[in-house]
Amino acid sequence: MFKQIIEYITYIALFIFFVLLSVVCLLGIDVFAAEHIAGIDTSYIQHLPVEEPEPESEWVYLGKFQITFYCDCVKCTGNGNGITATGLAVEAHRTIAVDPSVIPYYSEVQIAGLSYTYQATDCGGAIKGNRIDVYVTSHEYALELGRWPEVDVWIQK
Ligand SMILES: [Zn+2]
């Protein structure tokens, strides 16, 4: 009899415990939701910062340059591993070797007569002053393109 009463009380206690737990959970969610809703400030939504449009890229004329062409062979680069002075791999229509004191590394460069936008990521022993060496994929092509004197060059500021 006594054991049955203990069991009965235990069941009641467990039942109450779960009911309280459920109430707390429900209240918790309710409170969270209320806070969440209260936290929304409609005036803030109306005044969300508008993203500034990217400023128009500005190309600055740099002057006349002598343009030559090179590939990643041993003859052209010494080591022939296709890794530029900045550590980036050579890329067709993109990599140019420059004198970094004239054109800073990573500058975006446009060369008259070449329809791509190049990036100054490489340098070369003979590339000093107003000289640019444009990377091409084969030595024959580099030779075929030859040397272009007095070519207009622009750099992106
Ligand atoms: Zn070569």
What this model shows, in words?
The chain has helices spanning 2-39, 42-46, 74-77, 139-145; strands spanning 59-70, 95-97, 108-111, 117-122, 131-135, 147-156. By secondary structure, the chain is of the alpha/beta class. The chain folds into two domains: 2-46; 59-156, RlpA-like domain (Barwin-like endoglucanases, Beta Barrel). The protein starts with a helix and ends with a strand. The structure holds zinc ion. The site of zinc ion has 7 residues, from helix 3 and helix 4.
Task: Sum up the structure in keywords.
alpha/beta, 6 strands, elongated, Barwin-like endoglucanases, 4 helices, six-stranded mixed beta barrel, 157 residues, binds zinc ion, 2 domains, 25% strand
Compact summary:
This protein is of the alpha/beta class and 157 residues long. The chain has four helices and six strands, in the order ααβαββββαβ. The chain has two domains: 2-46; 59-156, Barwin-like endoglucanases, CATH 2.40.40.
| Major sheet description | 6 strands, mixed, barrel
Distance between the termini: 93 Å
Shape field: elongated
Report the portion of residues in β strands: 25-35%
Ordered list of secondary-structure elements with their pairings:
Layout (H helix, E strand, L loop, with lengths): L1 H38 L2 H5 L12 E12 L3 H4 L17 E3 L10 E4 L5 E6 L8 E5 L3 H7 L1 E10 L1
